[in-house]
Amino acid sequence: MRPRFVLFGDSITQGSFSPNGGWGASLANKYCRQADVVLRGYSGYNTRWALFLLAKNFPEKSTHPPYLVTVFFGANDAVLLDSKDNSKHVPLEEYKSNLLKIVSHIKASNNAAHIILITPPPVSEEHLQIRAWENYGVPLSEPPSRRNETTEMYAKACIEASKEANVAIIDLWSSMQEQPGWQTKYLSDGLHLTPDGNSFVFEKLLEVLKAKGLCSEAMDFDFINFPQIDANDPLKSFIF
Amino acid sequence: MRPRFVLFGDSITQGSFSPNGGWGASLANKYCRQADVVLRGYSGYNTRWALFLLAKNFPEKSTHPPYLVTVFFGANDAVLLDSKDNSKHVPLEEYKSNLLKIVSHIKASNNAAHIILITPPPVSEEHLQIRAWENYGVPLSEPPSRRNETTEMYAKACIEASKEANVAIIDLWSSMQEQPGWQTKYLSDGLHLTPDGNSFVFEKLLEVLKAKGLCSEAMDFDFINFPQIDANDPLKSFIF
Q: Which residues does the UniProt record annotate as the domain SGNH hydrolase-type esterase (chains A, B) (predicted)?
């Protein structure tokens, strides 16, 4: 059976198969004969609610547990308490503790699973406000639902969790901001990913996979490549 | 467990998660909280070789058999016998018989599985020749590897197989040619799909899914939608 790469997260994961280079679709394309990329993205979810999804998505006695899991939450946990959207807010310490519970649960389903934590991306407060005005008529004088300096604290907590749990990390919050114009180059509405933002996540993921020895070139191919099939005696190409 | 949509076919399936709107990725995006879209595309394969893939990909005693399967072969079976690529050629009658064997095997793994046969797309002989010259230096005076009137016979055999097996059909060969300029609008190299060609396959697939009562709007959502979660008592939203 093919290894399963499970993408677990919020809307940035749920939308990762969107046209125009979604990072999940790009991963499925790259590993098209090697791994099944399984989408477990839940728009609007924070880590507190994600805990309720673990038993069903990562059953402890699975006969085919995940080989690799990306855990990509925080954008909703970091919503500000004084925002209208504050039902999504999760306190910083609880966020970190929830991430550790998620990792622990996944390891219980397969102790050898490769786990990659991904920090929330940075947010562009200005564009969050513009989008809130355009979509919901929220006056531009209202503060944004998220602040970048708050999201930074959640990104740092995510990095701490990765160290404590000894799993890989992609620090999107920092690495995206190294690019001038990241606010619109990588983000479509101050929070979600543009095609360039999707490519950025995909490339960062490939870097981590390579470092783990899991680059596509190093993994087994599913069945023989067609030029190697002996057309006069194909059966022998399929005997394992 | 989420229903599984398995895409079984040749390179046009293997490449269906490519960036720029691959039809498989679009399907996964559309059903992102409802179904797992599983890629089983094998570049260069014909139906004769596909038979060797059935036992592993569609085990008879699966605890989680596919809910829906697209079977999309024929582009390689229809390669001309007098072409240099002729090891892929499968005689017309055998092609039809192999399709029926594939359908029969999938039904054995789950008699209720929704099966959709897809005919090979039309081929543009001129562009096949240009691509063979560009990629492999084949003189333009050489005949193309496939002829559209030959592929038509394979498309018709695929339609016959769908009727005999009482499964759904997408007649790509005919429907694509209804659009003027289909040769370059839908095909990138005379055979494989452009972004428009991918969109075309995706739309045809949605039409069949709708006719079967399987449109996204009619299917269950995976877990509760976040605005319905009671933030003060989330547990009750996750008790089944």
A: 7-198
